[in-house]
Write the structure tokens for this entry.
Amino acid sequence: MQTTFSYLKISGIASALPKQTLDIKALAGQFGEHELKRIISNTGVETVRVAKPGVNTSDLCVAASHHLFQKLSIDPGTIDALVFVSQTPDRVAPATSSMMQHRLSLSNSTVTFDINYGCSGYIYGLYQAALLLAASRCKRVLVCTGDVITPLLHSESRQLRLLLGDAGTATLVESGEDDWSLALYTDGSGDGHLTAARTLPNQKLPQEFNNRNNGYYHMDGNQVMSFAMRVVPEVVDTLLTLKSWRKSSVGTFALHQPNAFMLNFLRKKLNVSAETVPIAVQTVGNTGPASIPLLLSMRGDELKKNNQLSKSILCGFGVGLSWGGVALNLSNADFFKPIELN
Amino acid sequence: MNKQLLLDEVAKLLEINVENLADGFELKKCMNWDSLAVVSIIGLLDVHFNISVEIEQIERCQTIRDLFDVFSSNTSVAV
């Protein structure tokens, strides 16, 4: 899907992180000191945030939303729609977004959706917001993305425990003057490369998933790397064409933040300067659907100050497999630093 | 493709001296030959040499010679 929407804007982005931190170096006893040093120097991830038992994804997203409302002086009653994107909803039913409607004191006429996506999820959330603003009477859409993924990580999973962390974000999308170009893609044949293979009671998994990682999150890092190296440059090229932008005129490529290692390869493959591909993984790791808005929450002010946001490309890629991007103007958005939640 | 450039990069990845990387060097005896090394080599080839190789091809390599065989079979330029 490739499309362009008019009369949009992102007004603000806020985020919330669990206060509890996992220092990756503290796992030296388990994974070996030399090995950890080598991994940390490649991934750039030194700590990740871990939600305490009982803290759900909605808690992080609600905290981020309250913060956003307060900072932008938004009356929650004026929110027309809430889009919640996560791989880790609070419950199977009801939809987490509907519970959030109540907790955020949104009006009963608010329309709410849950979307189950991971690292591409922010793009899917923005797409849904754009559709609502373009095709209905919605004026304000709140897009929340987040995961509490750490309970799904096996204690022995070196690949994931050293990378993945918990976070929640909130983005306010409103009617505005900007045109957004979007490109979104799906390839379900890669379902096994990133998966938490769990089912409802009495349901069965396909044979090949039986006992895969005992239902804990599984990632085939090599496949994901190959996939990202292939699709990210394609998405960027597509968006540049849709927008008639030259690559050299783009100030910010806000890519999903899997780790510094992959981002550096992607940057080289895109053949763009390091300043245009911000990285914010050192203290938070890979936060799945939260990673792009969290990056902007952490570093948006600095990018804004450097006038790097009027031509911005955001690109997410991951579980599904699914991937996509949006080209837009972020120079009028306000960015609020992460708050911490106990 | 410049063989020396590639050797330098692989030596850096494996954290060993490039002089020790003879054709018969056994990759799997090296502590750093793991999924991170495999994924690095895939990225390295893609970024520096514009070559896309199958992951399994790299994972099957036993020696430096095997690695170069993979590179050669994916490029028209001899290594």
Remarks:
- The two ends of chain A are 40 Å apart (CA to CA).
